[in-house]
Design goal:
Elements: H1 2-16, H2 40-55, H3 66-70, E1 74-76, H4 84-87, H5 99-118, H6 123-144, E2 147-148, E3 163-164, H7 166-185, H8 204-223, H9 230-239, E4 252-254, H10 270-275, H11 285-289, E5 290-292, H12 294-302, H13 308-311, E6 353-356, H14 358-370, H15 379-393, H16 399-407, H17 423-434, H18 440-450, H19 479-484, H20 486-490
Helix pairs in contact: 1-2, 1-5, 2-5, 2-6, 5-6, 6-7, 6-8, 7-8, 8-9, 8-14, 14-15, 14-17, 15-16, 15-17, 17-18
Length: 508
């Protein structure tokens, strides 16, 4: 039953909050029958670290790493037997699931909200938990459309929670983010989260910007394909416009103390844990399995983009960039002949996790200005700042100067003036380039919303591939819902991954 599932899944965070243990604070070795008792500080650290772990693909092939393939960043290596799940889109309701991990994470945030209700000194903790709950629920909607919301996390009253419409949840999240900002503004005497806040070290001004950026993301997600909502969404965004947004100076990174001291302890950065190297110097799963996709390679080469050599490394055999085509027969193109993830992405085992990058934040604001949601600044300035932030993050040599040379080109989707025929395409294309591998889920969302970049050439050529588009439009509800919450999930329309869409998207 759902109640039982939440209780069991909640135990994940208890392992994550033991930051002082040598055993490793990302260890999941916990007895579900004897849950620990955590302080608000440890609860906050664990919940925030869990969110970052999921977004950055720390779980290996689960979470969003598969979207790096579908979104044209990577292809499976020729060293491996082809995967029908990835290359023929032949997946089931046991594939690619984030449903249970997200509700587990939400349970932890909800515990902080409950604790603050009895102790106003914890209001800042509650505000952060409200903001992060909105992030988790947005992920749920963006994966599944309709999900439990109004009856979720209340198993004493709703053992089998009903599903809410994705649109209704989005509307509720905007209001909830307003409430979190108001709670911060009215709680000047509350206890600071301090170092237990592993995103902003207790800086509540930064948290208000984070909340406001989520509001903008939620609004823009609906802007393209739901014109009837635009006026109300602009009014909603304007309510908290004075709080500002994340940008290239203030952005959301998670650093709970990732360490290179023992790469096998589970204490390293979750991105490095999947995409990097082991303590002995061997390739981790993601590094060995994922090779440069020809779609990404060609796109960046056509734009004279120096980020390609930071996002990927030259093939060992030729010292040149060599990619693969999704679903094609790789033949002799084993790992020594193809390009792996590069030094600008796998920086170190102690690198922070990216939750919202400076580049993504700037591109959101650029689009917000373009579409009339944000009234300060210029779309061109934030667009160019987003490109520069991406160059910096990928450690391009002389990043600022290199970025300026890059966006000075008279090429559509690179130079701002040269993109006048479709500024939105330029913004989303540059966002896509910047999100390489760590931000595949956001790239997938923006592709489903806008159709950019145009991924038709990335359609799997594997014989027998299902569907007609370059990638499926959504995933199935998990099998656990059919065994624990059958009546509620059965009331939802049957899911077709190629024809069922999230409410804000169009069929691709």
């Amino acid at each position: 039953m759902m109640k039982k599932r939440y209780i069991i899944l909640t135990t994940l965070f208890f392992a994550l909050v033991i930051t002082s243990c040598k055993k490793g604070f990302l260890s999941q070795e916990v007895n579900p029958n004897s849950p620990s008792v955590a302080s608000p500080q440890n609860l906050l650290t664990g919940a925030l670290a869990t969110t970052a772990y999921r977004i950055n693909g720390g779980g290996g092939s689960q979470y969003y790493n598969y979207l790096s393939v579908w979104m044209g960043y990577t292809t499976p290596s020729g060293n491996y037997v082809p995967s029908p799940t990835l290359e023929q889109y032949s997946f089931t309701n046991a594939s690619f699931q984030v449903f249970n991990p997200l509700y587990s994470n939400l349970t932890n945030y909800n515990a902080l909200i409950t604790a603050a209700a009895a102790n106003p000194a914890l209001n800042y903790f509650a505000a952060i938990a409200q903001i992060m709950s909105c992030l988790d629920y947005q992920e749920l909607v963006d994966n599944y459309n309709d999900v439990p919301y109004s009856q979720a996390l209340n198993s004493s009253k709703y053992l089998f929670p009903a599903y809410d419409k994705g649109q209704d949840i989005y509307n509720a999240l905007e209001t909830r983010l307003d409430g979190a900002i108001a709670l911060i503004n009215s709680s000047g005497s509350a206890s600071s989260p301090g170092s237990s806040d592993v995103y902003f070290s207790g800086n509540m001004t930064s948290w208000k910007k984070f909340a406001n950026t989520l509001k903008l993301r939620i609004a823009l997600r609906q802007n393209t394909n739901l014109p009837g909502n635009v006026a109300a969404l602009k009014t909603e965004v304007a309510k908290t416009a004075s709080e500002g947004y994340l940008d290239d100076k203030t952005f959301a990174l998670c650093q709970p103390g990732y360490s290179a001291s023992d790469l096998n302890s589970g204490q390293q950065s979750p991105f490095y844990l999947y995409w990097g190297y082991s303590a002995a110097g061997g390739e981790q799963q993601g590094h060995a399995y994922n090779r440069l996709n020809n779609f990404y390679k060609t796109l960046l080469q056509n734009y004279n983009d120096p980020r390609l050599s930071q996002a990927y490394a030259p093939a060992l055999s030729s010292n040149t960039m060599v990619g693969l085509t999704l679903g094609a027969s790789n033949g002799a193109l084993t790992n020594q002949f193809t390009s792996a993830v590069g030094p600008g992405l796998i920086i170190s085992p102690s690198m922070p996790s990216v939750v919202i990058s400076g580049a993504e934040a700037c591109f959101l604001v650029s689009e917000g200005i373009l579409e009339g949601y944000v009234t300060s600044g210029t779309a061109q300035d934030y667009y160019q700042r987003g490109i520069t932030a991406s160059f910096v993050a990928l450690q391009v040599p002389n990043a600022a100067a290199a970025a300026a040379t890059y966006y000075a080109q008279t090429t559509a989707n690179v130079g701002w003036t040269s993109s006048s025929a479709n500024y939105l395409q330029a913004i989303i294309t540059q966002k896509y380039i910047s999100l390489v591998n760590y931000g595949s889920f956001e790239a997938y969302n923006e592709w489903r919303r806008t159709g950019y970049p145009i991924l038709t050439s990335n359609r799997s050529v594997k014989a027998g591939a299902l569907g007609t588009g370059p990638a499926p439009n959504r995933i199935y509800y998990p099998s656990t819902e059919f065994s624990t919450n059958l009546t509620a999930v059965s009331a939802e329309p049957a899911v077709d991954p190629f024809n069922s869409i999230i409410f804000w998207a169009v069929k691709r």
